[in-house]
Amino acid sequence: MIPFIKTHALGNDFILVEQTPRIPPDYPDLARRICHRNFGVGADGLILWTREKDVFNVRIFNRDGSEAECSGNGLRCVAAYLNESGRWPSDELKLVTISGIYRLRRAGQQYSADMGEPGLTPQEIPFVPQEPMERVVNYPLRSNGEIVAITACSTGNPHCSVFVDELNDSYVEKLGPLLERHSAFPNRTNVEFIHVLNESEIEVAFWERGVGKTYASGTGSCGATVASILNKKTGRQVTVHTKAGKIIVEWPENGRLKLTSTADVVAEGNYLEA
Prior knowledge:
4 helices, Diaminopimelate Epimerase, Chain A, domain 1, 18-stranded mixed β-sheet, single chain, 274 residues
């Protein structure tokens, strides 16, 4: 029996489990089973957490069992649970993932996260171009016989952004998995489909690595904002419209990304299949 908390950030849902000796050591297998929509609790990902003094260590596993370096929505979900449960009473907290330290702050019903500086070089993403380059901006990538203009970066994990005239689910479902597993991305990639509304607003559809279509993505919203700025389509503060709500992303000149939006605790229970 494993106690769990069910959370979501704009419909991007996670199961939170405190990492104790009772947890089965095969975390990828546990993620696949507990996240299954029909035979488990159901979620986009599993987050295991432990506390070490004033820092919380976090490991994030996608629905397919692969481990994610970071999740902007997942971090806010952890923060919301720790605050609302009283496990961490301060409005400020530090979470550590395999990609680094993230500082979050509660502001009313929302949480702001310092997401660090985006990685823009091919080595930081990682991305394998056909010729040397400093940044992957409006890059013509051949995929399944067609050329797709992509902009890539890392916001703790790899992201590939594509600008579209309108959001179309069938196009997302067709191109998303092809780009996710494209050979140019050795660690696979998350994919954002961006429709620019104006210089301060975009709407985005998300194809997440190891998950598929999701309602929202925090690091994906950061990646989409970085792509919009690099392609001179928006200013440096952007409202990202997702299927279930808004995420505010700021990227000051040569600065650190800041992500702000809501996160909610839905339920708690015991997973018995363990």
